[in-house]
Design a protein that fits this description.
2 domains; 22-stranded antiparallel β-barrel; six-stranded antiparallel sheet; about 10% helix
Length: about 900
């Protein structure tokens, strides 16, 4: 296209001179960008192009591809990507976000994976994962409205700003749907629990000047309980596959809390009394089987509504917009709460019950049902599971709103431009059940003239009087305005240079609050995560694609972001495309990336939680060894699963994370064969993180200032604060290939395969620490691979898919290995690994008529269960970010078009 108007020249002079100068200035200092060729917009660039294959790798999943592989929702599809190294799913019933889902691309973390719809940023979930990390919830994204999902498997800060470290997920919606369609899907599992239903209604109407389309979905998911998976061994705490599994010691007993106390002089339940009370006899005491009360996946329901519209105001001007609403409800259940906080001091004939600033004294002979009538002087406490209160349950209700309105046009017959305003909001409320406050339980224990024995069951009236219902509300909003223009820049002998230039302004805020008792830490067995904050930022960016030779294109981009709370950041990138022949593309890119600190880490209040760790120091001090059973219950407690509290604090002085991503590869494509191979690497410096409780307990000498111990030296609490640590660097290789066979009258046969191999993943917590190896330390599969084989003949098609996850070291592999070395115990690597797994899906569909289609499938064809981690001391003893316990499941789906 040649510029030929005075207006075009004026626009080019005003925009190109600034944008081109900015982009070209980066070329000599950096190396490699995103993508470029010519006329459609591909994720990772604002310049339109004619080829989906660009200088940076983009994986495309069409709606048809996802349906053929049996995926129910967007989260399932994203989890299947080989570049997804881990996922947060609704299996995390003990976490802060059991109703939300997310993925991590290339090991960067969910908070460093950018998620968009039609190129627009989505609002962040108002509750942070783990009480620290903000992310975008992928559970409420519309499935039926999706045309395709584009996944940029490289950093994109020069195009999109912060968060795009591991990659960018861009969900492209259908925009010209016409007519009506109804789709119903029912699925269930072979072993019971976890059944699902989904009904979708699609409506669209078109005219000569525009289209409006509405997509409605309603889905329900049945609760999946641990007791539903006895075939996988998940129905009980004590399982054969984990030598560290054990029933909870929080059944019903009295423990000593001082050297002078003698537990042989106090009453302990007999085996008969224990089992009659609904507890579990462990062989040595009265414990509790938590798995009998736990969910593996919650009961949930979800409604999603998406409406898109476009209208041609003039030949060169369109009005476009989208309105989203989603509402979800999720209920998670875990075991009843337990107590061990109430101190009981026996001194002569006096028995004093105390907690915090509360205390009350009784005659020990008659107090608390006579449990301490013969007790020697000293300090004691009850350990008790309060099963009369039933499950601890959280009901989470979420409402998502999004609205965008914009103009798109063509200026001077050659410049595409767009302007939009965007607003997103997420409201969340959580109501919890099965809880009591420390004070009301104290009042129950010390009621009347002699108090109440905790060996005796509480009456329904006492439970009602003691029960407290915590609640939490949270909200996050995002307001954004952005503008972009792209088109012809200038003419060169090898072709026309293209440019894009734009700017945006964004305001973000969030607030999270809970009831007063939760904020004050007065609720038994529960933590809290609250806070509020706001930030704004503006950005401007430019891209330039230059055909330096007929078969060589160099693309540069640069973006400047300025944040209200930590300052500005410049993100350049450069990319090279070499096409020696029509079928082959050789590509390379380099870009600087950055990430603004999570708002929760900057503005959040202290986050309290419960966690389980191994107390390495105390274990060694007591003469024990991790992983080695002992006859001493105290040694077994601290050397295996040991419950403590933890507090994570915010840090308003955090700096941005900065680093780079680089990619070099090649792509081949012809009528039958296509393949690609890409070598990539990313690194972030000043990574914001919090030293985990398990890390602090393991590296107790280095993090001694974070650890709180009781009088006996046993670890009871970890204090941590968000901080800029040293660095993380990940390097890997992506490979994909596809081949099509023309079988003539027998249709077509298509094979597609892809894989990601992590060559290295290393990090350093502080500049003085050694560089750690994630792969060796454990918890990271070194490679993942997928393959699908599809047969298409006339109105019938069937697809067989295989999804493989490699063998990996257990999550606590490093800790177990170091403990064995310290104690001179032989260490067997294979005994501390998680086995590899391949899951198979089979789906088939048949077009009965042009307007009626039936699809059926079996997910997890060979009923593969989760592969267990022999180093994981905590339930359910398998990595939930990689596996689930659904087992074999089937579905049938029908679609009618009108």
């Amino acid at each position: 296209m040649q510029p030929n108007s005075r207006l075009a020249k004026a626009i080019r002079f005003a925009l190109i001179s600034g944008a081109a100068t900015a982009a070209i200035s980066v070329t000599t200092a950096y190396a490699a960008d995103d993508d470029q060729v010519e006329r459609i917009e591909v994720t990772g660039s604002r310049i339109k192009r004619t080829d989906m294959e660009t200088a940076t790798p983009v994986t495309v999943m069409s709606a048809e591809d996802m349906a053929k592989q049996g995926f129910t929702n967007v989260q399932d599809a994203l989890q299947s990507l080989t570049s997804t190294t881990s996922a947060m799913t609704t299996q995390s019933i003990h976490g802060f976000t059991p109703a939300a889902s997310s993925i991590s691309l290339r090991g960067a973390g969910a908070n460093r994976t950018l998620t968009l719809i039609n190129g627009k940023r989505l609002n962040q979930y108002p509750k942070a994962a783990g009480g620290t990390s903000n992310f975008v919830d992928t559970a409420n994204l519309p499935m039926e409205a999706v045309q395709r999902i584009e996944v940029l498997q490289s950093g994109g800060s020069a195009i999109y700003g912060a968060d795009a470290v591991g990659g960018v997920v861009n969900i492209i919606l259908k925009k010209d749907f016409d007519g009506a369609a109804v789709k119903y899907r029912h699925g269930d599992t072979q072993h019971g629990g976890g059944g699902s239903d989904r009904i979708a209604l699609s409506l669209g109407s078109s005219s000569d000047r525009g289209n409006v389309s509405t997509f409605l979905e309603f889905s329900t998911n049945e609760q999946l309980k641990a007791t539903d998976r006895e075939n996988f061994g998940l129905h009980t705490d004590k399982v054969a596959y984990s030598p560290y599994s054990a029933y909870s010691s929080y059944g019903a007993r009295i423990a000593a809390d001082s050297a002078s106390a003698d537990i042989s002089t106090v009453r302990q339940l007999t085996k008969a009394e224990c089992t009659a009370g609904g507890y579990t006899w462990t062989g040595t005491g009265c414990g509790f089987d938590r798995s009998e009360w736990r969910d593996l996946a919650p009961e949930s329901s979800r409604f999603i509504s998406t409406t898109t519209f476009n209208y041609e105001l003039t030949d060169d001007l369109n009005l476009v917009g989208r309105l989203d609403f989603a509402q979800a409800k999720s209920v998670t259940n875990i075991e009843p709460m337990s107590i061990d906080e109430y101190g009981i001091n026996v001194n002569g004939n006096d028995l004093t019950v105390s907690y915090d600033n509360f205390s009350r004294t009784f005659n020990k002979t008659t107090a608390l049902g006579g449990d301490f009538a013969n007790a020697t002087d000293g300090d004691y406490y009850y350990v008790r599971r309060l099963q009369e209160f039933g499950n601890r349950a959280d009901e989470t209700n979420t409402r998502n709103y999004f609205f965008t309105l914009g103009l798109e046009g063509l200026l001077a017959d050659e410049y595409s431009w767009d302007l939009s305003v965007n607003y997103g909001r997420t409201d969340l409320d959580v109501q919890s059940h099965g809880y009591a406050t420390y004070e009301t339980m104290f009042n129950y224990i010390t009621a009347g003239t002699a108090g109440n024995s905790l060996y005796q069951p509480m009456s329904a009236a006492d439970v009602t009087a003691t029960t407290y219902t915590p609640y939490e509300t949270a909200q996050s909003t995002q307001k954004n305005i952005q503008a972009n223009i792209s088109g012809f820049a200038f003419e060169l002998p090898a072709g026309d240079a293209q440019f894009a230039f734009g700017a945006e302004y964004t305001e973000q805020d969030y607030q999270s609050d809970s009831d007063s008792e939760s904020k004050n830490g007065n609720i038994i067995n529960t933590g809290s995560s609250s806070g509020q904050g706001e930030r704004s930022y503006w950005a401007t960016y430019a891209e330039l694609s230059i055909p330096v030779l007929e078969d060589v294109t160099v693309s540069t981009a640069i973006r400047y972001d300025d944040y209200s709370d930590f300052g500005g950041n410049l993100s350049p990138q450069i990319a090279v495309e070499y096409r020696p022949m029509a079928e082959l593309l050789v590509r390379g890119s380099y870009s600087r990336v950055f990430r603004a600190p999570d708002m929760q880490r900057v503005y959040g209040d202290a986050t309290d939680s419960f966690t389980s760790v191994i107390d390495f120091k105390q274990c060694q001090d007591l003469g024990g060894s991790v992983g080695v059973s002992s006859t001493n219950p105290l040694i077994d407690s601290v050397c295996n699963e040991h419950r403590i509290t933890a507090t994570t604090g915010a840090n308003k002085d955090l700096d941005a994370e900065t680093g780079y991503t680089a990619n070099i590869g090649a792509v081949w494509g012809d009528d039958q064969l296509n393949w690609s191979v890409d070598l990539w690497e990313w690194k972030l410096d000043d990574m914001v993180s919090t030293i985990s409780a398990s890390t602090a307990a393991r590296e107790y000498q280095q993090y001694a200032n974070m650890l709180v111990r009781d009088a006996s030296g046993t670890l009871t609490h970890v204090n941590a604060v968000a901080q800029n640590l040293a660095f993380q660097k990940v390097r890997g290789i992506d490979i994909s290939a596809g081949y099509t066979w023309d079988l003539a009258d027998w249709g077509d046969l298509k094979l597609n395969a892809s894989g990601t191999y992590i060559l290295a993943s290393e990090y350093q917590l502080s500049p003085t620490d050694p560089v750690e190896d994630d792969i060796d330390n454990g918890g990271l599969p070194q490679y993942r691979a997928n393959a699908t084989l599809g047969w298409y003949i006339a109105d019938f098609e069937t697809t067989l898919g295989a999804f493989h996850t490699a063998r990996m070291h257990g999550d606590s592999y490093k800790s177990f290995k170091q403990s064995a070395i310290n104690n001179g115990i032989p260490f067997n690597e294979s005994d501390n690994e998680v086995a590899s797994q391949t899951r198979w899906n089979l789906t088939s569909s048949y077009n009965v008529t042009d307007d009626f289609k039936v699809t059926a499938g079996i997910i997890n064809l060979f009923d593969a269960g989760p592969n267990f981690d022999p180093t994981d001391t905590g339930w359910p003893h398998y990595p939930r970010s990689n596996y689930n316990a659904r087992g074999r499941e089937w579905f049938i789906e029908g679609e009618i078009k009108f």
